[in-house]
Specification:
homodimer, 372 residues, alpha/beta, Rossmann fold, 2 domains, six-stranded mixed beta sheet, 11 helices, TrpB-like_PALP (chains A, B), L-serine ammonia-lyase activity (chains A, B), threonine deaminase activity (chains A, B), TrpB-like_PALP_sf (chains A, B)
């Protein structure tokens, strides 16, 4: 299941397995129900939720301008969208009777997998990058996972070795192009369900894109709702990749099912990926497009969000950066913000921060800063 | 309004102002409605919500054992319960026509106030402690606030000077004993409303307690619901203070409306307070009690939560530490966890973290760690 499709995959491209459902048996009022909140509300279109939840999902749509909303995924149990994936992936591990979970991650995914593993009573091994920030290392280790750094070239082979020798269930891709976890990616559909339940199908959804799993999940969710007659359209889905990498845009430009690129430097480390996957290409070519955004554009979008009271990781600002880079689509637009500002490398000293114990000293600084 | 009650306050004790409502005019079905989600759902029992929201509230109850739930307040816009307070306090600043907000805080409160100020288009000045961790300083500065460190003894006088000279609206107490913001504290009532909507009134609610504003808000919320006939009881409300300080427990022991203590060392910096407030004493003596928990007890509770997939600030584990320290009440119990683990001072290196690029090396470490 996690090796990709044995029939269609080649030495150059791995094709993922996809979950199908008996859509004809879906109960009416799928979008209206309150259910238990979180992912359980949508259980009838998800793989079996064997692993206990942490209240993931039901994140707010925060309006930041006329017809523009931020889907704030930092309001999840481990403060990123990855919790939707890991609830489903950990459920697969429980269902398969695995004794542990193995994951390769630069941050959010690893911490989230560790949390859901702990919650389900499973061991967890995290392979991370050698330049992972200390705060993110502590985050990934906080749930009792065994965290190891490995050079980029060694991470996929090591993950394969772990899976082969320990029987731990992998929730990261081990294939030549990205396939990911077939159950895990289904969790991202719930973002589409929640948006549709809140405001219907918007004109467009812009989102940060690394391997493109979020893109595929959101696309599949909206496609299901449209097929079921519950919404009147599938939004335009815009994949926003860092200009320093961008395997999806490269694949589309070259007409390939998935491409490989040589990443340049970028601070958007969560989405700077050397290899793409077929799922992303399928989604972007079916109902959307792919674009590149520079670190400078992401920083401007990140600053725009600060002024709206939202502190996001640089990568998480890629969706809004993409929207800002072009003409606004007609109608409501949602930009998915995937994660909190705590995940970035420290930005260094900010304005202020000086110690003062008299009003005269403080007053002088406030005048200098133009506050008073 | 923010100076405490001018008639009853004395040189030793400041009594806060409290908001009252026309409860007879409340629409039926208060607990049933879905509304807009977040705090807006409860607007009919809150001060006017002039300031725009960020999707605060509607946090999950995560079951961690038979009849024990964690109310995970880290799933808020700035990842703590303070967002409920600051939506209401920033609304008061907007309603008063203030050009800015001034706040004194060791972390969560300052960052949250900064976020809601930015969202409302207001300036913000944050006074913080001189030993605030760098990551928390960055967090408080992330929303464009002007952040200054000041020695503990200087913070209240400096806040008073800022308010007097700049006209900024204070959302922290400036009085001799803690009074806090009369509108802000109303925001905490929504925690009681959400719990009651999810599971009814539980047998008990345990919560971290510093100045006791959370305690008062939750008490008032449950008291309102009971008075309105919407629940069958007011839960026992248990205030869990760090043993290193504990002004509420001291006040109750001494029969005072509010007390002052000399804090000892504690890593639960968010709730280690030298001065209490009358609101907390009122709540604890009306429908609950107060207890002290040691750093060691909080660490054990924090570790228990890690194993459940919840990474919380040490202070946030005080509620569960309190529950663990005594006999379990009969019936459902909720422990409020106020904030995420990102807010703690770095704990230093964790197990693992070594760099490996071969299976043999990794295998050896996994065997040593007892994983395989």
């Amino acid at each position: 299941m996690l090796e990709g499709c044995p029939e269609t995959s080649t030495g150059e491209v791995a094709y993922p397995i996809e979950v199908d459902y008996d859509y004809d048996r879906l109960e009416p009022g799928f979008l209206d129900g309150r259910g238990d909140g979180g992912l359980d509300r949508w259980a009838s279109l998800l793989p079996p939720l064997h692993a206990p939840g942490l209240g993931e999902g039901r994140t707010p749509l925060v309006p930041i301008g006329r017809d523009v909303y931020i889907k704030d995924e930092s309001q999840n149990p481990t403060w990123s969208h990855k919790d939707r994936l890991n609830r489903c992936a950990a459920s697969a591990a429980v269902g398969a009777g695995a004794r542990g979970i193995a994951v390769s991650s630069s941050g959010n995914h690893g911490a989230s997998a560790a949390a859901y593993a702990a919650r389900a009573g499973l061991d967890c091994i995290v392979l991370t990058a050698t330049d992972t920030p200390p705060a993110v290392l502590e985050f990934m280790g906080a749930y009792g996972a065994h965290v190891f750094a490995a050079p980029d070239h060694a991470r996929r082979p090591l993950l394969r070795a772990i899976v082969e020798h320990t029987g731990f269930h992998p929730v990261s891709s081990t294939t030549v192009t990205h396939t990911g976890h077939p159950f895990g990616v289904e969790g991202y559909k719930t973002i589409a369900y929640e948006i549709a339940a809140d405001i219907g199908a918007p004109a467009a959804v812009y989102m940060p894109t690394g391997y493109g799993e979020l893109l595929f999940g959101v696309w599949k969710g909206f496609t299901e709702l449209h097929r079921l007659g519950l919404t009147d359209r599938v939004p335009e889905l815009v994949a926003c990749e860092p200009a320093a990498a961008g395997p999806l845009t490269a694949a589309i430009e070259q007409g390939l099912p998935a491409a490989r690129v040589q990443p340049g430097p970028s601070d958007a480390y969560a989405i700077t990926c050397a290899v793409g996957g077929y799922r992303a290409t399928l989604a972007a070519t079916s109902a959307g497009r792919s674009m590149r955004v520079s670190d400078k554009q992401m920083r401007a979008a990140q600053d725009q969000l600060r002024r709206q009271g939202l502190w996001v990781e640089l990568s998480a600002a890629a969706g809004l950066a993409g929207l800002n880079a072009g003409a606004a689509p007609g109608g409501p637009v949602v930009c998915i913000s995937t994660s909190s500002g705590f995940k970035d490398r420290p930005a260094g000293p900010r304005p202020g921060g000086a110690t003062e114990d008299t009003w005269e000293g403080l007053q002088q600084r406030l005048v200098q800063a133009g506050v008073i």
